[in-house]
Amino acid sequence: xxxANGATTPNGTKATAASAFRWRYLLVFLLVAGPIxxxxxxxxGFLAGGSWMGLVMIHLLVPALDALAGEDDEVPxxxxxxxxxxxxxxxxxxxxxxxxxxxxxLESRASAWGWWGLALSLGASGGILAINAAHELIxxxxxxxxxAGAMLLVxxxxxxxxIEHVRGHHLRVATPLDSASARRGESVYAFIPRSVLGTLRxxxxxxxxxxxxxxxxxxxPRNEWLRLAAASAGLALLIGGVFGAxxxxxxxxxxxxxxxxxxxxxxVEHYGLxxxxxxDGRFEPVTPAHSWNANTGVVNAFLxxxxxHADHHAHAGRDYLHLRSLxxxxxxxxxxxxxxxxxxxxxxxxxLMDARLARTG
Length: 361
Known about the structure:
The chain is mostly helical. The chain has helices spanning 30-41, 43-48, 53-69, 83-106, 112-138, 143-154, 160-172, 188-213, 224-243, 245-270, 297-302, 309-314, 336-343, 346-359; strands at residues 7-8, 14-15. It has a two-stranded antiparallel ribbon with strand order 1-2. A hairpin with a 5-residue loop joins strand 1 (7-8) and strand 2 (14-15). Helix 3 (53-69) packs across helix 13, helix 5 (112-138) packs antiparallel against helix 6 and helix 10 (245-270) crosses helix 13. The longest helix is centred in the middle third of the chain and has 27 residues, at 112-138. The model is unreliable at 1-12 (pLDDT under 50).
């Protein structure tokens, strides 16, 4: 898509102040509409094996369409975001909980094969519909939006991400201090547990230090880490009490899958990139050189332009329609959808990425 009225930004791309609603970002809601429509058309088939549809769509269909569609030519905004586009990440909150409770209501009727399909599909959807939308919202200045982001993370049992990502990762990215920055040569299988444990630990440390500095009790109601963990525990108890033990197991399994999906994306976004440590012990400022960029159209639509990641780290408060694809950032050979699959095969990942990483200097 091009805009003859767009202004040229310093990096050579165009930006436009057009205020028309950008429809393609509605694609994310197919993660809710698709499974429910499939079940309505054939409930028996869905419960037996069609429940795998979400996983197949996210990890096979979307990467294939992304490769076919190619480079994203949507220009970033330099004016106000259309209201409906600003609301879309907020609408992911009711959409996620609708999908979650719909799956809980169905799971007791699914075959064993269908149950696992439901768990994996729900978790993969949660990585996008819950966590990715939450990522957009927790960076916004409004309390309502940040709270909605927190509640999305509660819905996948990863509230600590809200604390660590904004107050930890963005400050420590591409340094040995950041657990969410993958090291060169590190496999995704080693990275995921290191990143999850690091997120939980550092989020706790950040909250503890904040409360101590404010003269507040660490083990008290003002501790956001505890509040978010308690909210997830309460949600789990609600699901177990209303839908039963196997539904609770489904919720927990889907939450694990959603967190793993997030951490694979984290692995892709910063693999091997490092900021130089200065003589005084501090690290050089974050630049576009410290995030892997991709700019493919289908995945950008599903992920609210998360692939324009270098600009996100340069301007964390910039909403998704204003993010630019920076040509000076290191570029992935494929979009995130495909690179997530490549990351699961460490020899192929190293073949694609290590030479490219060496060229970044």
